[in-house]
Amino acid sequence: MDVEGELVRLWPPFGLRVTCGPLVMRPLRDADFPEVLAVAHAGIHDPDRMPFSFPWTKPKGADLERAFLQYHWGKRASLRPDEWSLDLGVWRDGRFVGVQGVSTENFPVTRTGETGSWLGQQFHGRGTGTLMRQAICVLCFDDLGFEEVTSGAFRDNPMSLAVSRKVGYCTNGEQRFARDGAAATMVQLVLRPGDLVRPPHDVVVEGAEEFVEFVQERAT
Fold first, then answer.
1. What is the pLDDT of residues 43-68, one digit of tens each?
2. Alpha-carbon distance values, 24 to 41, 159, 215 (Å)
3. What single DSSP character describes residue 56?
């Protein structure tokens, strides 16, 4: 039996693959979780700051692992045409480095979604964060039917804001969050196809048509 082909037939999102220069991006599978969690345990950000609106990195050890697995399993189970999340594991030169995702609600009407990502701290400073964001934006606009994508970063997270600006996002207001018991300002950003700064490498996408058909079929 062709196990790989059968798995993709059963769950077409597993057939989605994005290649951009040294990066390969694809949906996470259960077999990837040990490698992924090893990078998460090694550190994603400085321990004295929290770059995420939902502080998912605060739990440690088995608590982090269980929450991580439950989140990803839950997103698979809840996929439907008007609300879905696509989290792509990112491998650079064959080594797992982080996750780049996009999530959307009311997509058939709004044609918009929010990009979000994390990158192992040991892999910062090599341009990977910019490249993986460019790649998923190309996927969204060229293959998945998006008309805009949004993002957000706390004002005290200049690295994330710099990545957004390199990719072409424009500031689109601010929002106040309660973060660790104190107010923090989230800078909202928006990107439209004409503003996208495309990557210096070709973006090769496999399985996008099957993914779109699968999501649409969930309506029936």
1. 888 787 877 777 778 889 999 999 99
2. 22, 22, 22
3. T
